[in-house]
Known about the structure:
The chain is an alpha/beta fold. It has helices spanning 15-26, 46-51, 63-66, 87-92, 94-115, 151-170, 196-206, 225-228, 231-237, 256-266, 278-281, 297-303, 311-328; strands at residues 6-10, 31-35, 56-60, 75-80, 119-124, 176-181, 184-185, 210-213, 219-220, 223-224, 244-248, 254-255, 273-276.
Amino acid sequence: MTDGGINLVTGGAGFIGSHLVDLLLETGGRVTVVDDLSTGSLANLESAMATAPDRIEILEGRVSDVLPGLDGSRFGRTFHLAAAVGVRLVVDEPIRTIETNVHETSAVLEFARRGSVPTLIASTSEVYGKGTRTPFAEGDDVVYGPTTTTRWSYACSKAIDEYLALAHDREGLAPTVVVRFFNTVGPRQSGKYGMVLPRFVEAALEGRPIEVHGDGKQTRCFCDVRDAVPALPQLLADTENHGRVFNLGRAELIEIGALAEIVRSRLSSESEIRRIPYAEAFDEGFEDLRVRQPDLGRIRKAIGFEAKIALETTIDDLARSLEARKIDQ
């Protein structure tokens, strides 16, 4: 879609956000990025700024500070990707996590309702909590642990985001779509905030031990960001999808211990694979799920979504992007 106003992308200098910005520019759109650069980086937007400098605007600051000064009538769509992300950040900075997720999403939706701007809210598989069955389907009940376990604060904050977004659609204030990402990976991703695949790749490249938390038997599904991002404008474009929640990811499961082995082999690394108890990696009482797998029936029916990029290709491209980042530093 190239008309209908400017695309607003919050968190557009982040991992997923920057790939979305690239896609929107490639298809002829205009983009305004709002990012406080707390976890994102302008380096992620270098190619966008080089190829379409006249169609991209970058506004540095918190969403809640920047959006009140913008003319909402200029924007055709909003993609809200700004959030506190990563297990390490959630455990270490729970106040920042909760306040960022809830307050900034509220600010985006307030902006959206000023002009009834169609808005996509990025959510997470963490919303399912402990889950009631596998694979997770959008209509399933959710179960969280006690409030004394910090880990669940992230899931609860993102669930509140979803309630707010769906209420805006239900009350006719702004069309919204909620997307629950499942372990999105690929170039530009950093392991700094606990994301498992870039953490493994960084360790393998540097010859450090690849640290697997727990027994390594927990299973996850990994979807390349370049498969995931095209789904976002497709979902938002169809009014039939408004007011709905969609899982977005890959269906195939892999054990985390096996993932470490694949990374080490793929990168011809001599790194040791070391298993670290959860209590040592995080806090005593940290809870993790054995299986996190999406039911993709809804998104397949809506837009025919299928992930196509092989995990091995993702590992190779992620490694190249991490090495390039080191050279630039």
